[in-house]
Design brief:
This protein has about 270 residues and is α+β, with helices and mostly antiparallel strands. It has three domains: about 60 residues, Arc Repressor Mutant, subunit A (Orthogonal Bundle); about 100 residues, Periplasmic binding protein-like II (D-Maltodextrin-Binding Protein, domain 2, 3-Layer(aba) Sandwich); about 70 residues, Periplasmic binding protein-like II (D-Maltodextrin-Binding Protein, domain 2), CATH 3.40.190.10. The strands form three sheets. The chain has a five-stranded mixed sheet. It has a three-stranded antiparallel sheet with strand order 8-7-9. Strands 1-2 form a two-stranded antiparallel ribbon. The longest helix has 29 residues. InterPro entries: LysR_HTH_N, LysR_subst-bd, WH-like_DNA-bd_sf, WH_DNA-bd_sf. This is LysR family transcriptional regulator. Keywords: Activator, DNA-binding, Transcription, Transcription regulation.
């Protein structure tokens, strides 16, 4: 079957808001129309995507999977349309993907100074598939944190990001200045396989709510400071390697120049 992109956008809006009324407002359509479109979409896919009650809307396992897929699909479609428009208007554009917590602003500023005629954009890379924007065409260069699928990629290491333990401020270990991996043995850890958060905000909310501790990159912990969480160094935890990543078939002059600038700035 062909996937109906319009219905997919409707579903993604409901999945994001968990509310038909707010999703309908965002989409500028009537709520009954949205409800009918979602029901038709479920019939086309032959599976339930949402669990509806009088007050809440929750995603089924199939709905959660489709919502994850939809974000990449819709972003890739939007990127393709933008490239078509750029070609029509003779616009040169460079797009950089970045992992949460990693700052690429310095090389972008220097590149923009050298190439004021080039439009420069950024795309966030989701932590469970950071290389996706490079593979689906949304970005030409990535500033990413390992691990990721390196197949078909040119990878240039530029640094390391220490990992810290993120835990509720009320946790007994929060009183310690630093920890070791042995200190975390036997402690309840957040299992990404059983409960994968769709965003870092959701992940930190789960940690604060007592669903488990987590090892996170220091740059991420610093970017998401909140009073009910603390992060503590884990002295023997291996650091995450940070890299500049370019698809092997990306050999344009702008990509090469940005890569040279970024390597110097980020190392």
């Amino acid at each position: 079957m062909d996937l109906d992109l319009r219905k997919l956008r409707y579903f993604a809006a409901v999945a994001e808001h968990r509310h038909f009324g707010r999703a309908a407002e965002q989409l500028y359509i009537a709520q009954p129309v949205l409800s009918r479109q979602i029901k038709a979409f479920e019939q086309e896919l032959d599976c339930a995507l949402l669990m509806r009650t009088t007050r809440t809307v929750e995603l089924t396992p199939a709905g959660k999977q489709l919502y994850e897929e939809a974000q990449g699909i819709l972003a890739a479609v939007d990127a393709a349309v933008r490239r078509v428009h750029d070609a029509d208007r003779d616009v040169r554009r460079l797009i950089i993907a970045f992992s949460a917590g990693l700052s690429v602003s310095e090389p972008i500023r220097e590149f923009s100074t050298r190439h004021p005629d080039v439009e420069t954009d950024i795309v966030p890379a989701r932590w469970w598939e950071p290389d996706a924007p490079l593979r689906d065409g949304r970005a030409q260069i990535g500033y990413l944190r390992k691990p990721f699928d390196e197949t078909g990629m040119r990878v240039v290491p530029v640094g390391h990001d220490p990992r810290v333990a993120c835990l509720p401020a009320t946790h007994p270990l929060a009183a310690r200045r630093e920890l070791t991996l042995a200190d975390l043995d036997g402690k309840r850890m957040l299992d990404p396989q059983k409960r994968r958060a769709s965003s870092l905000e959701e992940k930190f909310e789960l940690i604060a709510s007592g669903f488990g501790l987590a090892l996170v990159p220091l740059s991420v912990a610093r970017a998401y400071v909140r009073p009910d969480l603390v992060h503590r160094p884990v002295t023997d935890a291996p650091a995450s390697e940070t890299c500049l990543v370019v698809p092997a078939d990306q050999r344009g002059k702008l990509v090469r120049e940005f890569l040279d600038i970024a390597v110097s700035a980020l190392r």
